């Protein structure tokens, strides 16, 4: 198979049912910088990747989103801050595996739209 030289993910779209509610969650609870909103679309920056929140354009696109794993430096502090801001966690920070001497820790939460995502840390 030919190498297409894909370097990174430029943008990820997440289906939402209520754009203002989703914007409030991703901006105020997760703390992502809101770039701009236009015509029912909201764009955030997450490192080098843009996150697009929008209503599904067609019925075939109306389904839950993929799981996002937001990488953070201090998992416990991030979870505490997000909980204070209203995030609903479905578990507590826990180790999910090891890569050599690096431990991978995660905690899963629901966004305001019912999608499951995680914050993760490599220790």
Automatic annotation (TrEMBL):
InterPro entries in the cross-refs: Anthracycline_SecMetBiosynth, Glyas_Bleomycin-R_OHBP_Dase, Glyas_Fos-R_dOase_dom, VOC_core
Domain (VOC) ranges: 8-122
Taxonomic superkingdom: Bacteria
PROSITE patterns: VOC (PS51819)
Gene3D superfamilies with a match to the protein in the record: 2,3-Dihydroxybiphenyl 1,2-Dioxygenase, domain 1 (3.10.180.10)
PANTHER family attached to this UniProt entry: GLYOXALASE-RELATED (PTHR33993), VOC DOMAIN-CONTAINING PROTEIN (PTHR33993:SF2)
Protein name as annotated: VOC family protein
Natural source organism: Paenisporosarcina quisquiliarum
């Amino acid at each position: 198979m030919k190498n297409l030289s894909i370097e990174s993910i430029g943008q990820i779209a997440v289906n939402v049912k209520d754009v203002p509610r989703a914007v409030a969650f991703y901006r105020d609870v997760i703390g992502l910088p809101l770039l701009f909103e236009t015509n029912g679309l909201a764009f955030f920056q997450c490192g080098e990747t843009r996150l697009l929140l929008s209503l599904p354009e067609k019925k075939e696109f109306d389904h839950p989103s993929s799981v996002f794993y937001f990488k953070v430096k201090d998992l416990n502090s991030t979870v505490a801050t997000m909980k204070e801001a209203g995030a609903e966690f479905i578990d507590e920070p826990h180790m999910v595996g090891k890569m050599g001497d690096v431990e991978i820790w995660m905690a899963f939460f629901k966004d305001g739209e019912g999608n499951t995502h995680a914050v993760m840390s490599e220790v």
